[in-house]
Amino acid sequence: MTCHVNPHSAFRIPKSNRLKWWLIGWLGKGLMNLICSTMRIRVVDFEKARAEIESRRFIFAFWHSRILVLSYLYKRLGAAILVSRSKDGEIIAQILKSQGHKTIRGSTSRHGVRALARLIRILKEEVRPGVVVPDGPRGPRYKVQPGIITLAQKTGFPIVPLSYSAEKLKVFASWDRFILPYPFTEGSIIYGTPISVPGNIDGEGQEVCRKRVEEELNRITRTADQYYGHAIE
User: Fold this and answer.
1) What pLDDT digit, counting tens, does each position of 201-232 carry?
2) I need a labelling partner for 166 at 20 to 30 A (CA). Which of 66, 95, 178, 205 fits?
């Protein structure tokens, strides 16, 4: 399918607390491994994205609520991942770094331009996959923000939508309705149709691509939830 930030607002780790945050990252990784390694994972429509994933020139896109299992599944990917500079983002960043990923701190709403420019450069120079959570760091839930479209346009990397759900899970009362699968449950991971963003499109074309990514992410997320009888809105 083709188609001024205040720097003092960012969360910063005091030097005296760096060991604590490093331990948080490794403990988080251990908890993630404990849950996800016991799950029975069903993979759906991987063939749609096989060529893009094997090339390592692609951008994964998945919702904020679906980070857990997907980051575990691709823990050896060595991706460059955009992570917010918030306190919650620091926890996620520490876990991702313990998995071998490279984190770029920023978002579409905080340090966005600088972080996006750095991510574009890394993807071009290091030829590693990118990962963007397009409704992060604070929503709106299930709404794609335009940064991922700019990233795909500037790098030429296609966007690969990805989502999952699980038979037994806890849904948190957070803005993103974060889901936590129970150990030993079954889960389904669904790959969406890759979406390429032409380098010469204008603002209207970017909006068309943004909507396509949003619709495809919502489609595969609903499909995964409905398979287990969930209706997580």
Assistant:
1) 999 999 999 999 999 999 999 999 999 999 98
2) 95
Cα–Cα–Cα angle for 69, 75, 76, rounded to 5 degrees: 150
Output b/e per residue, 19-45; b: 16+ Cβ within 10 A: eeeeebbeebbeebeebbeebebeebe
| C-alpha neighbours within 13 Å on the C-beta side of residue 43 | 7
Q: Please indicate, yes or no, if residue 3 is contained in any of the structural domains.
A: no
Tens of pLDDT, residue by residue over 58-115, are 999 999 999 989 989 998 899 999 887 776 677 788 888 888 889 998 765 545 788 8
* Strand pairing class (179-181; 169-171): antiparallel
Number of compact structural domains in the chain: 1
